[in-house]
Amino acid sequence: xxxxxxxxxxxxxxxxxxxxxxxxxxxxxxxxxxxxxxxxxxxxxxxxxxxxxxxxxxxxxxxxxxxxxxxxxxxxxxxxxxxxxxxxxxxxxxxxxxxxxxxxxxxxxxxxxxxxxxxxxxxxxxxxxxxxxxxxxxxxxxxxxxxxxxxxxxxxxxxxxxxxxxxxxxxxxxxxxxxxxxxxxxxxxxxxxxxxxxxxxxxxxxxxxxxxxxxxxxxxxxxxxxxxxxxxxxxxxxxxxxxxxx
Length: 246
Description:
This protein is an alpha/beta fold.
């Protein structure tokens, strides 16, 4: 059976209890977050920026963006309510600067051309329809904006063993795309100036980055579900979010 949204939801609901204490926070998430923040800082410098983090989990990376880039405003979306709930204290600490919401990566609840940067760190292998997710990330970027996506680097023998054997053995039939497949997905979505960098280490990861062209037309999907988290997206907070125009 192909990996699907229900499996991803089940996996992350189970994982939400220990996510912030996972060894992966040290082994993979920390190094990859630092790499992404270096790239974002290079691109935006100290200018104000609107950043969307897709698959934000408990908000660890979103909070690191705010701490490193105080002029940034961050939106975070995650499919799994329990992950967002576990980040309640972070959302409170950064209220007004980070806007979390429960939403689907294939149906982002934002208008086309909204963000300067879209990030996705270490969750892409859980997305059942990776081409749709990339197309949506491109759609919500302004022309000239950047998509920065990090996932496990599985092309070498060690990466294959870590991700296609060990991770897949624990997480199920997830799919870590090859570097070639990432280039194909980005090009298919209309992104340009595609660049990649491999970060070596015990858990090697690949950063794929590209520049948005003109905003893509609205997707074929109907208006997505949009659910606020922990009282931060009540009517007033929801009004501050950037709605999708369908």
